[in-house]
UniProtKB/TrEMBL annotation:
The keyword GTP-binding applies. Gene3D superfamilies: Spore Coat Polysaccharide Biosynthesis Protein SpsA, Chain A. The keyword Hydrolase does not apply. GO terms for molecular function: transferase activity. InterPro entries: DUF6457, MobA-like_NTP_Trfase, Molybde_CF_guanTrfase, Nucleotide-diphossugar_trans. PANTHER family: MOLYBDENUM COFACTOR GUANYLYLTRANSFERASE. Residues 23-167 form the MobA-like NTP transferase domain. It comes from the Bacteria. This is NTP transferase domain-containing protein. Keywords: Cytoplasm, GTP-binding, Magnesium, Metal-binding, Molybdenum cofactor biosynthesis, Nucleotide-binding, Transferase. The lineage of its organism: Bacteria, Bacillati, Actinomycetota, Actinomycetes, Kitasatosporales. Pfam families: DUF6457, NTP_transf_3.
Length: 315
């Protein structure tokens, strides 16, 4: 077993784009440490935990959620182990039957900080090596087999062998599977954080409000709520809001950013994307700067003349 560290620039994980993969999300656990509450539906940052995980694997060709059907932010395929509550291996086997890609990302539904970049790192680690899978390890170095990318052929091989040995997969622990696989480890104490207790939920809710994360979290939540799939350049919009507030008036900031969004949505017959947002923001920012320049000029023209006066009218 090996450890995998990403190399290159911060965007190097994007090399994982173009990898065809399916995703299986296990969301049917009993959540006993949470008092049996519907854990995938618990809200963190205004979004159910399940929807946060689904956003991280949005590029999957097929996403299978093993649980009872429920409303989700994006369409998925539903599956259920038989009997329900048969444990993670039985759930994985049920979900895997609905996949066809050679690479399969397997996730639990309680990962508040999982993101697309982490999924791409796992896929890159799998692609770049000869192992059967690549999984995250947590802050204590423990394996997290439900935050991992696997070769589907290896999963099917070992699951079939286990089912034959034990007359099915019901009740078997995950270690029976992972112990038979050659795995690469990808350290990530943040993305591997899962919510098993109410203290974990409280920690996650507090962490997303930290200064360095809150805007990204809020924008992601709003996009999910409004059904928008658009890359937002937060810096461009904040710069625009600043220019409008300083050059015109404070209430101009939210109104201007709203109008920029509306203009971008109308661009190219309603198919405007990030480029349309950037162009509309550029035009609006230039206008705000013209207003600021005119205001400065007006103040200069209206300033009293400090030149000493002489002659009969002085005094």
């Amino acid at each position: 077993m090996t450890a995998y560290e990403p190399t290159g620039a911060p965007g190097a994980a994007a090399a994982g784009h173009g990898v065809m993969y399916d995703a299986v999300v296990l969301a049917g656990g009993a959540a006993r440490r949470l008092g049996g509450v519907d854990k995938p539906g618990v809200s963190v940052g205004g979004r159910p935990l399940l929807d946060r995980v689904l956003a991280a694997c949005a590029d999957a060709r097929t996403t299978v959620v093993v649980a009872g059907p429920r409303p989700t932010a994006r369409p998925v395929t539903w599956a259920r182990e038989d009997p329900p509550g048969g444990g993670p291996l039985a759930a994985l086997g049920a979900g895997l039957r609905h996949t066809s890609a050679e690479s399969v990302v397997v996730l639990s539904a309680d990962l508040p900080f999982l993101d697309e970049a982490t999924v791409l790192r796992l896929l890159a680690a799998l692609r770049d090596g000869d192992a059967d899978g690549a999984l995250l390890t947590d802050a204590d170095g423990r394996d997290q087999p439900l935050v991992a990318a696997y070769r589907a052929s290896a999963l099917r091989r070992e699951l079939d062998a286990l089912a034959e040995q034990h007359d099915g997969l019901t009740g078997l622990p995950l270690r029976r599977l992972t112990g038979a696989l050659d795995l690469t480890r990808v350290p990530d104490p943040v993305a591997s954080f899962d919510c098993d207790t109410w203290d974990d939920i409280a920690t996650a809710r507090a962490r997303i409000r930290e200064h360095g994360h809150v805007l990204d979290e809020w924008i992601s939540a709003v996009k999910d709520e409004l059904g928008i799939d658009l890359d937002v350049d937060i810096k461009v919009l904040l710069d625009l809001a600043r220019d409008a507030a300083h050059g015109v008036a404070r209430p101009a900031a939210p109104l201007t950013t709203f109008l920029v969004g509306y203009a971008a949505a109308q661009a190219k017959g309603g198919e405007g994307g990030p480029e349309a947002v950037a162009e509309a923001a550029r035009k609006a920012a230039a206008l705000a700067l013209r207003w600021a320049e005119e205001a400065a000029a007006a103040k200069s023209d209206a300033a009293p003349d400090d030149t000493p006066r002489t002659g009969p009218d002085a005094g």
